[in-house]
């Protein structure tokens, strides 16, 4: 039953891009029969692979995050947990499908070594995970941390503008892609376990770990690009000349390098600090095996035909009016948002925290509109040849202002929402679509835009909630004053009545 539910969820998320692709094929720009056949086969593999993978993650990686987080009070010295948190963040990022997909795109378009790129992303996430755990225990203000972090992002972007580095966009894509279907639930479980164990179970502790983790690779890749001044070939090509056997072997290597280090490291940690029952160890190993099989099928489907079709579709859209391109990408963004499980979970959490004042539907619509705006900005950026650095600078300046005005809870929710909005379909389809649309590295940045727009929209919701809360408090205060005044009036009348009776008796 669980597997069928996963199949249903993933199928719904894939359906919009399949339908639109078929419409373009039959009515706008037909693709070759081989390209279309490989695409449809890849869709089936992607649905099956992601469903199996998510099922395995539920029974392995998610539980591993909870076990590590809950064991924080058993290590006696917290710095040991921080070190392990750094390493877990590193390995979880390497195991992330979004990371592998982005690494392949960056290597093929810009010529940056995929292994180095993924290593830098993992290092950035690991360091920020360690700091996120330290922040929870040390009870450091999330608003202060995010204010400093965003200010640093703005400073580095300004340096990029001054030095003329036009490829900082991939650093923002790296930040968004790093927190996907493995890293996000793993970090949420880890941070929640630490906050409970350290008796810092506050709203500030529950949220923000995913958002902080996504800043790690952003800083790491951006600093690397600024120092190396790397640009690359900047020509988009597909992998259609690879044989199926070559794709299968390449994906097998990637899948093993993704899952095996994380699992190995967890069991080393478990052996030293936790010592789980043998039956539980067997269950986790079995869940890890399922996750590996699912990841292999998922990545094989992506490499077989999904990305190539997205590039071809982007190339076809580039020949159409800009309005049509905006409409198509907006439909993709809107539909993917509503079908993403992590987004729905976050929306429910917001409704619970605000006591129902901000409904989950409001959050969903807010994030979906953010996806639409990100899609519009990406298309206009490419069509009008606007530099990405100027756009992202303006958006992060707005984010900084909103963070200052918002409260801690919505800061954490906002940055976490940016992480969950950039799911595997964003990296596997929307990014290659924009690369095909631009025909060059200018297509990079769409994942970064998708990640930053929900941050802005959720902060706006937080400010609205803050205003509503103050209005309710003012209304309650007025009602209390009226009630108090009424009680005083009735009290005075009762006092006068008693005095009148005493006067009559005295006569």
Give a verbal description of the structure:
The chain is an all-alpha fold. The protein has one domain (2-500). Helices cover 83% and strands 0% of the residues. The protein contains 20 helices and no strands. It has helices at residues 2-27, 33-58, 61-70, 78-94, 97-110, 114-138, 142-163, 169-177, 183-197, 203-206, 209-228, 244-274, 278-317, 322-339, 341-353, 360-383, 388-405, 408-421, 424-438, 446-506. The radius of gyration is 26 Å and the shape is globular. 52% of the residues are buried.
Quickly list its features.
507 residues, mainly alpha, 20 helices, 83% helix, 0% strand
Short description:
By secondary structure, this protein is mostly helical.
């Amino acid at each position: 039953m669980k597997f069928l539910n996963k199949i249903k969820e993933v199928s719904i998320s894939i359906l919009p891009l399949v339908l639109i692709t078929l419409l373009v094929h039959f009515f706008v720009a037909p693709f070759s029969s081989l390209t279309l056949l490989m695409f449809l086969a890849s869709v089936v593999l992607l649905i099956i692979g992601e469903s199996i993978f998510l099922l395995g993650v539920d029974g392995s990686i998610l539980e591993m995050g909870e076990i590590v987080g809950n064991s924080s009070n058993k290590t006696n010295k917290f710095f040991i947990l921080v070190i392990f948190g750094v390493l877990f963040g590193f390995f979880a990022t390497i195991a992330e499908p979004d990371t592998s997909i982005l690494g392949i795109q960056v290597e093929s378009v810009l010529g940056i070594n995929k292994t180095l790129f993924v290593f830098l992303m993992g290092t950035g996430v690991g360091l920020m995970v360690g700091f996120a755990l330290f922040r929870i225990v040390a009870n450091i203000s999330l608003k202060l941390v995010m204010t400093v972090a965003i200010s640093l992002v703005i400073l580095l972007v300004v340096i990029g503008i001054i030095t003329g580095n036009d490829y900082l966009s991939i650093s923002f894509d790296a930040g968004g892609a790093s927190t996907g279907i493995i890293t996000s639930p793993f970090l949420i479980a880890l941070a929640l376990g630490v906050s409970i164990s350290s008796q810092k179970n506050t709203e500030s502790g529950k949220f923000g770990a995913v958002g902080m983790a996504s800043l790690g690779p952003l800083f790491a890749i951006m600093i690397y690009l600024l120092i190396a001044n790397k640009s690359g070939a900047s020509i988009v090509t597909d992998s259609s000349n690879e044989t199926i056997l070559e794709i299968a072997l390449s994906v097998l290597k990637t899948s093993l390098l993704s899952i095996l280090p994380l699992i190995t490291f967890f069991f080393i940690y478990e052996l030293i600090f936790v010592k789980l029952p043998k039956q539980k160890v067997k269950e986790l190993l079995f869940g890890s095996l399922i996750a590996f099989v699912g990841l292999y099928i998922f990545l094989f489907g992506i490499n077989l035909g999904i990305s190539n079709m997205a590039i071809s579709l982007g190339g076809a859209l580039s020949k159409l009016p800009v309005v049509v391109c905006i409409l198509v990408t907006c439909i993709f963004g809107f539909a993917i948002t509503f079908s993403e499980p992590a987004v729905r979970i976050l929306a429910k959490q917001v409704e619970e925290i605000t006591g129902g004042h901000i409904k989950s539907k409001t959050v969903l619509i807010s994030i979906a509109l953010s996806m639409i705006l990100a899609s519009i900005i990406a298309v206009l950026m490419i069509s009008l040849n606007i530099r990405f650095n100027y756009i992202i600078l303006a958006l992060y300046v707005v984010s900084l202002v909103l963070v200052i005005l918002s409260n801690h809870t919505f800061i954490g929710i906002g940055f976490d929402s940016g992480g969950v909005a950039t799911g595997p379909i964003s990296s596997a389809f929307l990014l290659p679509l924009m690369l095909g649309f631009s025909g060059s590295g200018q297509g990079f940045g769409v994942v970064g835009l998708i990640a930053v727009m929900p941050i802005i929209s959720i902060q706006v919701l937080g400010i609205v909630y803050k205003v509503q809360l103050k209005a309710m408090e003012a209304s309650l205060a007025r009602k209390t004053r009226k009630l108090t005044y009424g009680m005083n009036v009735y009290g005075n009348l009762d006092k006068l009545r008693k005095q009148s009776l005493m006067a009559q008796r005295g006569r």
